[in-house]
Write a structure and sequence with these properties.
Layout (H helix, E strand, L loop, with lengths): L14 E5 L2 E6 L10 H13 L8 E6 L10 H9 L3 H20 L3 E6 L2 E3 L1 H8 L2 E4 L4 E3 L14 H9 L1 H10 L2 E3 H6 L5 E2 L5 H13 L3 H13 L5 H15 L3 H11 L10
Parallel strand pairs: 2-3, 3-4, 4-6, 5-7, 6-9
Antiparallel strand pairs: 1-2, 7-8
Helix pairs in contact: 1-3, 3-4, 5-6, 9-10
């Protein structure tokens, strides 16, 4: 089977680069605060799905150009057309946006979001679906669906956001649509770390580089089990983790770690 060559990929609706096994996705419509369109939703979804089939990328960083992450769905290119769609058309759209989150969660590579400025609506859901989130104190995160007459249950937010910030806090954010500033987002656990704006992208890449130099098969297994164990009972998740860990113990990275420990050296992981 032909592996997807991430280093030669040329998307149409965002910027893409790969260096030292770290891919960077930059939402790039800064004049509108990087809104999403029908086309960019689909291309992002397809990109995260293709990442299952590449040996070129170990970690993904996603960010926005021009000092903002993403303002969500484009008002004129998405919201306007949705008003005139019938139910089957609307379902095709909402299922596609949900598929983007599903593709991000099923992508074996860790995803690090670097968030500055506006991070709203669907943009907040893309940040939510990432594995780690670095933000700035001046950033604003808002799940603002109720402010435009929609429910807060969009792109998996009613399931995923409570697992990140807790049920009560998620209920407040999803019912009111209000913004969190960066300090609150960190305090509530939405952000893993606050970083100065000028240092944000470098901090995200530094974290991505650390992950990329680690046991990437084991990282992928960790992400898989974090997803799978949502719907398991005690006996199921203990057994599932036993099988997952046994599989990791068969990797060469596990052997390398042991041999490096014996010789008091740092292990050089290769992801096999």
């Amino acid at each position: 089977m032909t592996r997807w060559a991430a280093t030669t990929f040329k998307p149409n609706y965002f910027l893409w680069s790969v260096e030292d096994r770290v891919a960077t996705i930059t939402l790039n419509r800064p004049e509108k605060k990087n809104p999403l369109t029908f086309e960019s939703y689909a291309e992002l979804r397809d990109t995260f799905r293709r990442l299952k089939g590449t040996d070129d990328v170990s970690v993904v960083v996603i960010t926005g150009a021009g000092g903002n992450f993403s303002s969500g769905g484009d008002v004129h290119e998405i919201i306007g057309p949705l008003v005139d769609m019938d139910m089957p058309e609307l379902l095709r759209f909402t299922r596609m946006t949900g598929d983007l989150v599903l593709a991000m969660r099923e992508c074996p590579q860790a995803i690090v979001a670097a968030i500055d400025g506006i991070c709203a609506g669907a943009g907040a859901c893309v940040a939510m679906a990432s594995d780690l989130r670095f933000g700035t104190a001046s950033s604003k995160v808002a799940f603002l669906f109720t402010r435009v007459g929609l429910a807060g249950c969009d792109m998996g937010a009613c399931a995923m956001l409570p697992r990140i910030v807790g049920q009560g806090r998620a209920s407040e954010l999803l019912l009111t649509g209000r913004s969190m500033d960066g300090s609150e987002a960190e305090r509530w656990g939405f952000y893993n770390r606050l970083v100065a704006p000028d240092d944000l992208l470098q901090a995200a890449h530094d974290q991505a580089a650390r992950l990329a130099s680690g046991p990437t098969f084991a990282h992928g297994m960790t992400k898989t089990m974090l997803n799978a164990e949502w719907n398991m009972g005690l006996r199921e998740f203990i057994e599932a983790e036993a099988q997952a860990q046994a599989a990791c113990m068969q990797t060469q990275d596990f052997r390398r770690a042991y041999e490096a420990f014996v010789t008091k050296e740092k292990p050089a992981f290769k992801g096999d």
